[in-house]
Amino acid sequence: MRSPRHPRRTAAALTGAVVLTLGLTACSGDRDSAADNGDLRIVASTAVWGSIARQVVDDAKDDGSTLDVTVDTVLSGTDDDPHEYEATARDIAKIRDADVVVGNGAGYDNWLTDNAADGAEIITADQVTAGHDHGDHGDHGGDDHGDDHGHAETNPHVWFNLMLVQHFADHLAQYLHSVDDSFPDRATGVSEDLGKVTDRLKKLPEANAVLTEPVAADLLDGTKVRDVTPAGYAHATLAESEPSAADISAARDLITDGTATVLITNAQAQSPAASQLSQAAEDKGLDKKHAVINVNETPDNGQSYFDYLGNTVSALEKATGSTDGDAAK
After folding, report:
1. How many domains is the chain built from?
2. Nearest alpha carbon to residue 294 among 104, 141, 78
3. How many Cα atoms are found within 13 Å in the side-chain-facing hemisphere of 150?
4. Residue 133 belongs to some domain of the structure
């Protein structure tokens, strides 16, 4: 049986030994449930979260769920930078018509959560915060994350934090289960796929990487690939500003002197600093060793999250000389 709509909630997924708390504060809202009159509509901010939501729904349908769910995505390609995106009137209408809105949080896609209807369920991988000032709140990964990289700021690109992805998928499944108990209350398919990726990451050999953008930083946590990006450079890119000449020079020196053997860049947000580091990597011959990796903030058109994630891991395997490669999938 389908239950009445739950009031608005926001999922704050926590890492480490902290248990995800699902008893969250509610805001008022009496919007009618579309689940009582046909499809339950999910709208996602980007293709990452739309793809994960769609997998949760498709896996549940394969397991016999009778809940009718549609998933729509606002930013489905690589043409727009979600950081800077401003929702159009059509986007806002789509978002306000959703029963459930799903996204990133961490100030990354406030244009989604700010426009959700009062009665909509809000599920995000990280806390919904104000704006893009990433230095105003603590690191969601705890002390270990800060120690590994030497950066105190929060990285909003949480789709490469696989624990947060798991929490997000499970929270969505639990909510949909509360609407219709034929829907499984755990995202077991997502869990299995994340487990395969984690196994591949654990097999990566030792290497040092410089990141022109922090997009893939969380993916390196727990691996033998060290993020050696200078703290000043990383701080500037997390604050969405151009690093100083000294910070760029420090990062470039790590490439030219051979300390960094991998460069991870983001062609979707190419900056003058990133161009300088890419040129240094080319001069060093890293491109010929497949050790210059491009990781966009969003999957290509039609690409699923796990294809996007798998391709990134494959690039890391090739760049670091891993002998497992795609055979580890």
Report:
1. 2
2. 78
3. 9
4. yes
